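Worked example 3. Consider a protein that binds S-adenosylmethionine.
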Amino acid sequence: MIRQGELVEIDIEDVSSDGNGVGKIDSQVIFIPHTVTGDRIQAKLIKVKKKYAQGRLEKIINPSNHRIRPRCIVADKCGGCKWQHIDYQHQLEIKKNQVKETLTRIGDFTNFEVEDILADTDLGYRNKASYPFGVSQNGNLKAGYYREGSHQIVNLNQCPIQDERLNPLLAEIKQDLQELGIPVYDENTKKGILRHLCFRIGKNTGEILITIVISKPSNFKLAEQAPIWLERYPNVVGVTLNYNPKPTNVIFGEETELLAGRLYLKEEFAGLTFTLRTETFFQVNTTVAESLFKWVIDALNLQGNETVIDLYCGIGALTLPIAQKVDSVMGIEFDKVAIELANHNAVINDIDNVRFVVGKAEVVFPELTTIADIVILDPPRKGCQPEVIESLGKMKPQKIVYVSCHPATLARDLKLLCENNDYVIERVKPADFFPQTTHVETAVILTRR
Ligand SMILES: C[S@@+](CC[C@H](N)C(=O)[O-])C[C@H]1O[C@@H](n2cnc3c(N)ncnc32)[C@H](O)[C@@H]1O
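Given these inputs, the predicted complex is written out as C-alpha cells:
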C-alpha cells in the first residue's frame, strides 16, 4: 500500500497520452512527469488515489537510452514543451503508437494500419509565438510561456522551438515596451493594458508580423513606436494592435488595428501564395503541414471531376491546393476575417472554382443541398459537432478526409461516422506538427463501403 509523501523507486514502462512517464508499484499505476520509458527513478508520491497516483521526479537512478539533455535552458520550468528530455526518434514512436492506441481504445477500430509519421526538423519549427506579459519581482516587464500547470510566466528571451528569426525580436521589443511604461494586464484584477506579444513569420518568405494584444485602447505611444520597429527589422512587414477586453484565456479579441506596414504577411505554401494575419488560423508547422496536405491530395487519387466541401477551412490552406485538382470546392469557416483572406488568396492565385462561406459548420453544412464526392473535416481540438456528423450520415460522400490535432476526438468522431458500417478506414497518416510537445496531428481517409 503506497502513501502520499512516500519516496519510491520505480521503472518507467510507458509514456501516457498526456506526456507523463508511467510506472507501477504492485498494480497501482503511477504517473511521473519529466520521465521516459526505460528510466529507473526515485519519485515522491504527491497524490495517491484509489486507481492511480502522481509522483514528482526526485532523482534519476538509471537514465533511459531515450533520455537526452534538453536543448532549452528553461525546459524544466516552462510549460511550453513537455518532451525536451526525450530523443526525437522516440517522440515520433510514442506519437505513432498514441494514434494507434487511441483509435483502438476510443474508436473500437481493429482493422487498420497507422502509416509512418511525417516529420521534419525538431527545433525552430513554429511560425507563430504568443507570449503573455507579466511583471518580474524587480518590476521589469517579462514575457514568456506559463510554468507547467500554472499561470506564472517563465520569462524568455529566446525559445528553441520558434523559428529562429523571431528570437532577436523578443528581448528588444520587450525592452521597448518597458520603456513606454504601459501597465501590464493582471488576470486576477482585470486591470492593466498589455496582454500578449505575438509574432507570425512566413517560413518560406521570411516576412514577419508583430502584434501587441491590449485590453483597451491606450495612448502609450505604440503608434509612434511601430514605425521604428518596421525600420529596425527589415523582415517585419507589419505591426498591428489587437484589442481583447474579455477576461478569458483566449488570446485575440475581435478588433485589430494597423499601426505600421500591412495587416498581413505573404507566405508561399503548397506552391501557392497566401496572405495571412497573426490572429487568423494557420498551421504552426509550415513544412510538415505542406507534407501532410500533399499526402492527403495524393491519397485521394483525384480524377479532376470531383465536388469537394472543406469544413473548418481557415484561410484556404488545403481548400486552394485541392481546388487545382478537382471540379469545384466549397470552404466553410466561421471566422469572417479568415474567409476574407481565403477569398483574396483565391484571387491572387487565379483559382476560380472555389466558393467560401462564412458560418458555423454545424449550421451551414446541414442546410446544403449540394452532394459532395469528398468532404474534408479539419475541426479544432474539440472535434466535430453532432450536427456535422449527422449530416455526413445523410449526404454519404464517397470519401471523408478527417484532419485532426486531437486523437481522442478524432477517434470519437470516426466511430460515429463508421457505426452504421457506411465507412471504412482506408488510410491513417500521423504527422508531427508539434515536436517537443505531446501533441500529434493525424489525417484519416474514410471510404464509403
Ligand atoms: C484546425 S483549423 C483548420 C484550418 C484549415 N483547414 C487549415 O489547415 O489552415 C480549424 C478552423 O476551424 C474554424 N472553426 C472553429 N470552429 C468552427 C465552427 N464551428 N464552424 C466553422 N469553423 C470553425 C477555426 O476558425 C479554424 O480556422
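Take a moment to read the result before moving on. The mean pLDDT is 96. The longest strand covers residues 52-62.
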